[in-house]
């Protein structure tokens, strides 16, 4: 692309560094900002600058937080003995939205992925194992995405805690509520059948 | 969405103001920035801030430019008597890429669109008419997109310059080079037939 302005070119290049945003989309976004009042861009850039400079991770669960100990970890209503292991803040938000989980979280910050150069030491795995060894925890719930990387990460943690006296579970995989059986993939349907539950339990909302 | 951090929430809200970016995509982009080194976000926000504060419009063609008179307007190789009327900088870039146009541009900054509250006075139409009235211009080439708004804008300008002694043309509409006739829409194919050209001309690259 041949730009008529270096300023425009710089802005487009920086925006197109974001994942899933190519040069054309970047140009569209930047031209949108130019059509808005200047303050609008100021709000955007200040919000981003403040975020990356002031953001903290909760010192207990490593979730993104504005304070040292996040809202969930500092709540007295949560069950400290059950810990749900998730990948990032989006998973915490998704599970909190269901209002079905009363325990605590432990945010790994990713999955083990040799292809992307992410090893166990880049994640909050040691702190999780330490937490379990401290003795308060009774159950660990794995809630990573069911991909190769997710399974690897689950298994890596499992090996380190399996001899400790805790229950280790994983969230159920199966057909989505409301889905038609004929359109489900075989692996998911297979798991649904293998991990079938007493009918009375399926009546719970 | 329930965010664990006000800083995160602010950043996501600001990013999701951009066109075509919803809350989920905004969260994904913001989390990407958090995983990058802080400087990366600094480059992005500085590029955007510099753009909106320092950007200039060329005083002749109103294209985005770093200097008072853009490269095209200050070039001695361009034909000052032919002016191509376009909507924004993207159209200038697209036409320059073809290397088929040696004249100058006039960037309107949009199209007349009552629905979006854009009237003739929000666009660089008066300056275009003044330029034509000054007498140097021999041909005006309309290259707005062929939508209702584009046609309205073309016609609005046409009415004001049609009595002046200039040639007024519009870029050709027709089947794309390499396209199959059977997949073309009727309106485009119809225009291709109505505006057919001497066969010898079609041999030019």
TrEMBL record, chains A, B:
* Pfam families from the UniProt entry: RecR_C, RecR_HhH, RecR_ZnF, Toprim_4
Top-level lineage group: Bacteria
Zinc-finger ranges (C4-type): 58-73
Keyword annotations from UniProtKB, A to Z: DNA damage, DNA recombination, DNA repair, Metal-binding, Zinc, Zinc-finger
Enumerate the spans annotated as Toprim domain.
Answer: 81-176
* The keyword Chloroplast is assigned to this record: no
Matching entries from PANTHER family are given as: RECOMBINATION PROTEIN RECR
Function field: May play a role in DNA repair. It seems to be involved in an RecBC-independent recombinational process of DNA repair. It may act with RecF and RecO.
Q: Family membership, please give it.
A: Belongs to the RecR family.
Q: What is this protein called?
A: Recombination protein RecR
């Amino acid at each position: 692309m041949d730009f008529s302005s270096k300023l425009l070119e710089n802005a487009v290049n920086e925006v197109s560094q974001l994942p899933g945003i190519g040069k054309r989309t970047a140009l569209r976004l930047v031209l949108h900002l130019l059509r808005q009042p200047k303050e609008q861009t100021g709000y955007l850039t200040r919000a981003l600058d403040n975020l990356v400079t002031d953001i903290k991770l909760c010192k207990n669960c490593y979730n993104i937080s504005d304070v040292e100990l996040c809202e969930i970890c500092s709540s007295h209503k949560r069950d400290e003995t059950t810990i749900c292991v998730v990948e990032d803040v989006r998973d915490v938000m998704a599970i909190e939205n269901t209002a079905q989980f009363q325990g605590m979280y432990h945010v790994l910050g990713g999955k083990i992925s040799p292809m992307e150069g992410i090893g166990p030491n880049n994640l909050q795995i040691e702190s999780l194992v330490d937490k379990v060894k401290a003795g308060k925890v009774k159950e660990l719930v794995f809630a990573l995405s069911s991909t190769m990387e997710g399974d690897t990460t689950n298994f890596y943690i499992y090996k380190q805690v399996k001899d400790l006296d805790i229950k280790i579970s994983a969230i159920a995989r199966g057909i989505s509520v409301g889905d038609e059986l004929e359109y489900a993939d075989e692996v998911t349907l297979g798991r649904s059948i293998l991990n079938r539950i007493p009918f009375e339990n399926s009546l719970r909302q």
